[in-house]
Amino acid sequence: MKIHFGSGGNFLHFYLGIAAKMQSKGLVIDRLSGVSAGTFAASFLAYDIDINKNYFNWNYNLCKELINSEKTIDSFLNATKPLFENKNCKINLDIWSSKIQVPDSIFKLSETQVISHKFCGEKDIFDKIACSCYLPIFCPNKTLVYRYNDDYFIDGVLTFNKEIDYNLIINYKDFIKNRNVVSKFMDKLPSSDIEKNVKLFELGKESFNLRLND
Length: 214
Prior knowledge:
alpha/beta; seven-stranded mixed beta sheet
C-alpha cells in the first residue's frame, strides 16, 4: 500500500495518531509520502519509530521547546531528532515541498516561479522536512524561504498535487468532517498545550479505527 499524509499544522498530532494505529494493526506499507505537517507521520513510519512508545515524551519535549520560541520549525526538529538516532529508513519515503526561484532584488512570491518538488531518499532527512514545512511566520528571522543545496524552498502545501498515485491520501479534514467534529474549533488548538495535543493524537487513532471498519 502507498500512503500519503497531508498538511494541517498542529494536526500533525492527529496524523501521528493515525500512524500509531497503522503500526498497531501491522499495516503493510510499500511507500510513504508526506507534505508539510504530514512529513512527520510519514517519516516516523518510514524510520520505524515506535509511535505509541515515544509519542508522550516527544510531545512533552516539543512543548518545552516551543515555550517563548519563535523558531517553530527548529523546535519540532529539535524534539524529533533524538528519535532518529541509529535509525535507518525502512520504507521508501517521498517528501513534497515547493521549490522557488528567488528573484535577485526582492523576495516576493508573486514575482517568483513556484513549482512542486519531491525529495526522495533518506539523506538530510531533517533539511527535507524543514523545506516541506517552512512558513515565514514560524521561522527564524521571518525569512521567506529555506535554503537547501543552493536551492530555495517553502511549505509544500502551496504546490502539492493531490492527484498523485497513492492508495490512501490522509487529510485531517476528511476524517474530521466525517466524524461531525467542529473543525473550526480544532484548527485553533494551541501547539503548546500538551493535553490538547494528546487529544488530537487519540482522535487520530480512533478515527482511523473507524475508517478501517467502514
